[in-house]
Amino acid sequence: MFFYQDGVHSASANVVTPQDEQDTALQWRDFIAEHHLDGVVCIAAALRRGVLDAQEAERYQRPAANLREPWELSGLGQLHDAVQSADRLICFGGP
C-alpha cells in the first residue's frame, strides 16, 4: 500500500478522530496488518505535511517523530518498482 498526497495523514500518530466518525487511519492500519502488506507513505508528501519518522525528525531538527507503525517512509521509486511487478494498480481519489 503506497499512500501519497493527503493520504499520508493516515500514517500520523497525531491525528485524533472524533468519536462519531469512522477512524479510517485505524482501518487502514488494521487492513495492512491483517493482510501482511507493506504500509508505505511518500516521503516527499509526508515531510510536506509534517509526518516524520525518527530519522527525518532528527535530520530536520524537529522535536518528535509521529509516523505510526506499520508505516514506513519511502520515495516514488518504491511505487515504481512495485507497479512493475504488480498485475494491477488501484488509485483512490484525485482528479
Automatic annotation (TrEMBL):
The keyword Transport does not apply. The keyword Cytoplasm applies. Signal peptide: none annotated. GO terms for biological process: tRNA wobble position uridine thiolation. InterPro entries: DsrEFH-like, Sulphur_relay_DsrE/F-like, Sulphur_relay_TusD/DsrE. It is found in: Cytoplasm. Keywords: Cytoplasm, Transferase. One of its GO terms (molecular function) is sulfurtransferase activity. Pfam families: DsrE. Its main location: cytoplasm. One of its GO terms (cellular component) is sulfurtransferase complex. SUPFAM superfamilies: DsrEFH-like (SSF75169). Belongs to the DsrE/TusD family. This is tRNA 5-methylaminomethyl-2-thiouridine synthase TusD. It comes from Pseudomonas amygdali pv. eriobotryae.
